[in-house]
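Students often ask why we bother predicting the structure of a whole assembly rather than each chain alone. The short answer is interfaces. A chain on its own may look different once its partners are present, and contacts between molecules only exist in the joint model. In this exercise we take two input lines together and write out one structure for the complete complex. Read the inputs first and try to guess which parts will touch.
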Amino acid sequence: MRLSKLYTKTRRDAPKDETAKNAQLLIKAGYIHKDAAGVYLWLPLGRIVLNKIIQIIRDEMDALGYQEVMMSSLQRKELWETTDRWDDDKVDIWFKTKYKNGKEAGLAWSHEEQMVDMMRQFISSYKDLPVGVYQFQNKLRNEIRAKSGIMRTREFIMKDLYSFCRDQEQHDSFYNDVKEAYLRIFERVGLGDSTYFTFASGGPFAEFSHEFQTVTEAGEDIIYVDKSKRIAINQEVLRDDVLNNLGVKREDLEEVKASEVGNIFSFGTSKSEPFGLKFTDEDGKEKFVTMGSYGIGPARVMGVIVEHFADERGLVWPKGIAPADVHIVRIGDTPEVVAAADKLYADLQAAGKQVIYDDRNERAGQMFADADLIGVPHRVTVSAKTIEQGSVEYKARTGSDSKLVKTDEAVKTLTKA
Amino acid sequence: MRLSKLYTKTRRDAPKDETAKNAQLLIKAGYIHKDAAGVYLWLPLGRIVLNKIIQIIRDEMDALGYQEVMMSSLQRKELWETTDRWDDDKVDIWFKTKYKNGKEAGLAWSHEEQMVDMMRQFISSYKDLPVGVYQFQNKLRNEIRAKSGIMRTREFIMKDLYSFCRDQEQHDSFYNDVKEAYLRIFERVGLGDSTYFTFASGGPFAEFSHEFQTVTEAGEDIIYVDKSKRIAINQEVLRDDVLNNLGVKREDLEEVKASEVGNIFSFGTSKSEPFGLKFTDEDGKEKFVTMGSYGIGPARVMGVIVEHFADERGLVWPKGIAPADVHIVRIGDTPEVVAAADKLYADLQAAGKQVIYDDRNERAGQMFADADLIGVPHRVTVSAKTIEQGSVEYKARTGSDSKLVKTDEAVKTLTKA
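Now the answer. The structure tokens for the assembled complex follow.
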């Protein structure tokens, strides 16, 4: 990607009404555009990163044989009345609208009800179970305040997976598979070391629900972490009986700030009963399906990554989700410099690398500042001075020093990076 | 994909209230689920086909250097008041909703206004032009009636591209590039032969707008086609002056039924003026940006393909967008048959083919009927009888006869198919 062709530009300041660090940086670096409070548009660089996170999640879902669908924003009132979640008194984040004939419709903030209703057509026997169905779908949530940048918005894409099992045992095994997949996902997006499987209150249907919490100074939650056991407990369930149950000692727990990056719930039959979602078991008896739901918000994950890794110079992306592998800065526009930088760009691409190429011929200081702001892991500079020495100047985004490296060697090393 | 694992099932009948042939077939074959009038959910097979169409479109957009973004469903009232398109009297397909503070918001049926507003941040000089920005985005349209299946729904994904140019000349060249890309897209999805570049009324800002119309018996439009010139004219502009202008003779025109599959518009400066979207030209003067917009609805295209190719036995997919390349039917479940079919499945996948494998051990008649209904181009049957002869039975979806083919040869031929 040549920066001279990219239509977005970096900017010195974020809008004054933007208070979240993640959104400020992403706006300045040209990843997102703020349209309204809690409504952001995804610019080319932002869409690439968001999409890489989405692809990692999809990959892990597909590997377990879960099947991808796409549901709708428009929601039928009847479906949500079935579970008594239509009233604004019961659910306070609805956006609602009306058809031309005056009939009300909701705009999906979740898809559980529609999913259960749809599955009635396809589940009839124990042979149909277990099954996992997921989607990446727009959610609209009428939040009173939206102030955490892309971490809590009024409109966002959510990966929601639903599981349908014949009994608790089958459900527990499914649930555990998803838990392991989630840990792999957080590993792959660069949050593995700092993300903990966290016990939270289960609500009416289960002793616990589980969150995935990333320990980070920017976190808005407080959790209690047992680092050696890699378990965390949130404030709601920090009780002696729970600690005993989990075999965790209070003195091993560390209080830390954290951000929720995923959650998984067991529903039992609380969703299948109101909709009559049943199956015939091997014994010939009709039973209700045991369900679970498993969410990850890719934009929220991206926001946490920004907050967690960014430094005073700008964004810092883990390599699995960076918008490119290498950022080439070309200083000067003499034929020799242009030819050398063009060749490096072509060679790295030919080796399968994604490359941002700053061919704008701006001041060196401006281009270095932009490279830091954009946050690609590896920066390579080509100038008359480096060419004289048959070299390029290499700097890691997280390093403080740059060094001269022979050009061939640099290509070889970056190709393996 | 093993059919025993696919959670959807074929069904004998579509819902009684479904009158469109495309939706009837897609529901029966398990591609879509009808949630409400004009609201369909995309099941795994449907999502695969829709996604292949989307990828072909994306491919052609990226090849021309257009840049992908993702905008929002929530729309600010102010933006649409700027162009006097907020009132329901002016635009009769709005869905509207309200924020918690009582402020109104629209749900996007188009994104022109938001796009122009966003581009004000990034366009300032003639050097920034031309630029093409596109997205695949959910559109919500409050249609009074929805009766054409997935061809006209209340909620659907649309590819919308917008062009920003410095003058009419630059715009004309951009417009022509998109026209050529659209023709390649329709070629690649299997509609090349029957799709015509069609002259339609231009509205207030241009002499013509252009549609891409697919000639098909199921079409809801009437157009007039000059087959040798590969040009069509719609009823609105079938006038002598237009025919003269285009060098087309009335006697060469054939009246045919057709379905619109894409459209492209020139806006001139009618969109940039109300928003003040200007740039500084080489001569130092401020000028308004010349714009165009270019739409394709992937689901609409898919609906037209269904209507155009389906036969009395079910769906018939062109090879570029079929949910799989090959559909294996396994008759029987003796170890020999299972081993032979499993091996064929593995070999074809290893050769890079996408395969639907009917391993359900249903009655042969049921499995053949399902294969026809699902509509994959190539069907291969493995049974005790075919194994005896070292062969498989091959049938093309569009052919009437099946034939025995040596297994090795079948794999070789299908790998190249």
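Check your guess against this: Residues 109 and 139 of chain A are 5 Å apart (CA to CA).
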